[in-house]
Amino acid sequence: MVGGLARFRRSEHMLLPASLGAVGCSVALPLVQVALAFGYYGSDLRTGLWSLAATTVYLPLHLRHVWYAAHGARPPFGRWTLAAMAVVILVATPLAGAMWVRTYTALIVSAMLVLPGPWSYVLYAAVVVAVAPVSHALGTPWNTAPWLVFSVLCGSMALLLLVWLPAALARLRTAREALAQQAVAQERSRIDAELRHTVGAALESIADRGHRLGGRLALGKTATEPGEPAELAEELTELSADSRRALAETRRSVRGYRQPSLRAELETTAALLSAAGIATRLDLPRSGMPGTIAQPSRTALRAAITRLLRNHAVRNCTITVTSLSGRVRLELRADEAAEIIEVAS
């Protein structure tokens, strides 16, 4: 199933363009605001210069927040840089013209990206509510206030969507890598446990018996006890037979590792579906389940899981393994639909 995740790798190619798009829009809106500060009605060279100076100071901090958030991470010292950004924007409010309140868009976007949920929502609402009275205090008529509030709301929502898209892609990549590592760890644990209980136990027995035989030969008992050479020869013959059996078991185990484990495949499938928001339950028998799964059965299972992932209406899935008349089958029941897969090991 980890190999089947390669079908979703196309989303990774969108991560960098989406991040650059979010940063580009975050740069474009402040530049438009600076242009308005120079040329909007009631503005002059002084307001334009104040707007340009304040934008030069706060914009790098804002872009830093956007870049980290677009990659699914919170920026280091994000609260301090957010506080510095807020101070610059608020100090420049009475100096950069009546349209400067539109810069609050960048402030609330950074707050949503840096602060945890409850506090970011509170600050978002507080800033939006403050847009109308602040703009009126700067000389904007009350009939213009709704347009400014609407502008801040739409601008902030658009920027947040542009940032959250690459952030979702980054989280998807992280989840994919975690699933791959989990599958590798599970397979290594299975192989280690199987070797320890089969080949390991046989090798320990051979080593112990060989040590006892070596000790008896070193004490020279073969020269003092009649019949001892025959007994030693018999034990050596048994030791040789055990060694051959251990070698055969090792070869059998190595051949089995070329096929993936059915249990590991199903557990990885359940983890993938759960990561996609589908509540998944595994119903496995205590005995009678094959240790491996052949390539055709694995291909059919992956195809079924791909169909489930593409069906956004699916919310629950149950995977049941049953053994009927010596034949093992998988039943995937997603909501009301069910699909049967015959398992070949």
From TrEMBL:
TM ranges: 20-41, 48-68, 80-101, 113-135, 147-169
Keywords: Membrane, Transmembrane, Transmembrane helix
Top-level taxon: Bacteria
PROSITE patterns: PROKAR_LIPOPROTEIN (PS51257)
Name assigned to this protein: Signal transduction histidine kinase subgroup 3 dimerisation and phosphoacceptor domain-containing protein
Phylogenetic lineage: Bacteria, Bacillati, Actinomycetota, Actinomycetes, Streptosporangiales
